[in-house]
Amino acid sequence: MQAIKRITLFSLVAVMLVMGAAPKSEAAWPKDQTLTMIVAYAPGGATDIAARLAAVYIEKYLGQSVAVLNRPGAGGEIGFTSLAESKPDGYTIGFINTPNVLSIPMQRKTRYSLESFIPVAQLMDDPDAFLVLKDSPFNNLADLVKYAKENPNKVSYCTTGIGSDDHIATEMFCQAAGIQMKHVPFDGAGTARTALLGNHVMLGVFNVSEAAEYVSGGQIKILGQMADKRQDLFPDTPTFKEQGYNVIMASTRGIAMPAGTPEDIVNKFAEACEKAIADPEFQQKCAAASLPLKYLGPKDYLAGLQQNQKNFQQLWDTNPWVQPKKK
Questions:
Q1: Spacing of C-alpha 196 from chain mean position
Q2: SS (H, E, C) 210-270
Q3: Longest Cα separation, the chain
Q4: Domains defined along the chain, listed by start
Q5: How far apart are the C-alpha atoms of 235 and 68, rounded to whole Å?
Q6: Which residue of 36, 95, 164, 273 sits 20 to 30 Å from the alpha carbon of 42, by its own alpha carbon?
Q7: Quick one: what percent of the chain has pLDDT higher than 90?
Q8: What pLDDT is recorded for position 5?
Q9: What is the pLDDT of residue 300?
Q10: pTM, whole model, 2 decimals?
């Protein structure tokens, strides 16, 4: 009888240990509660379009609805801060973009850093490009440089904000070409593109995904792309490097959660992202929207961000793209 009691007791203890070892969030998450996906840019840009497309297919594989919330401003800082300060319970996620999420804390004091996030999944890698209206006298980088040298600060160019990938890339180009141009920052690609289409600026600096529709439609033309090799979207357009300027820049876009989010939740969400990005229908829709896909899981995504952070810090230390404010 005592032996039976011991066996029963040991069995009960074993069950309790197993139950205790299982992460509680695994069983509880996601509940029947809509997840909020923060996008740090205005509606209409490539990040917003990508987020809304991704949300549909993440919902499919996660089994829970995902609502997109635009929090634009300050080059992405408002949205990134909102994500960093959210409760780490798995119900608030957000898109983070390079270099903005890394470069802004180098420029000024912020309430977030890379350590404020847990990178979950990189979804896209989108090179930058120089764009002008179809009737612009510029047809290549040589035309632009010639005019800019003869007319310092007369060329106005729009970007998605100070410290954005397009801004940093343009400053790198100006330094390499020995020219000066006037920067006009906006809070997102949609508003920046509107400024170019309305002829309020002479040059637009966007990601290739944000330009493809308007280039194919004949409204704007592309002077060069900042990829390491010609992208499928623009096979006939030479890279900056081909035109004599070794400027390579892209915006990577991916999903992150606030630091402190349980690992099992992160992994479960990453699995849903991986399934979404492998979905043929999602791939087809991204191709139609000119969104270049490139998936990385949590560890590889973090490693990539850390390497980018190191590279941007070295650039900032040697040649800051804006002058830091005096304290």
A1: 22
A2: HHHHHHHCCCEEEEEECCCCCCCCCCCCCECHHHCCCCCCEEEEEEEEECCCCHHHHHHHH
A3: 100
A4: 32-126+251-318 (3.40.190.150), 127-243 (3.40.190.10)
A5: 33
A6: 273
A7: 63
A8: 45
A9: 96
A10: 0.74
